[in-house]
Amino acid sequence: HQFYKAIYAKNTASLFRGARPNNTPCLMNVMMELRKCCNHPYLNRGAEDRILSEIPVELRTKANIANQLVQASGKMVLLSKLLPRLKEEGHKVLIFS
Predict the structure, then answer these.
(1) Are 24 and 45 in contact (CB under 8 A)?
(2) Which of 11, 46, 79, 85 is the most exposed place for a label (fewest CB within 10 A)?
(3) Residue 8 CA: distances (Å) to CA of 14, 32, 62, 78
(4) pTM of the entire structure?
């Protein structure tokens, strides 16, 4: 949500905060960056490092990092809720990426 707004407004101060110079998002094609952000924020350069830096060091376990990966994307949240229910009901699921 915060990345989408920052990309849309071309808010470079927000996007580049805490990012290494070679790991900052390119805003030459805003529509492509917005598309990547909608698919999953980690597709934008620097977003993963910034999101993970918000987790305190002592809480950076594999489980918390995996949870943050899911929570960063609405599509992943939907899948995390929907897939267990479908499996429970005996459905088969094919996911194209």
Answers:
(1) yes
(2) 85
(3) 12, 11, 32, 24
(4) 0.55
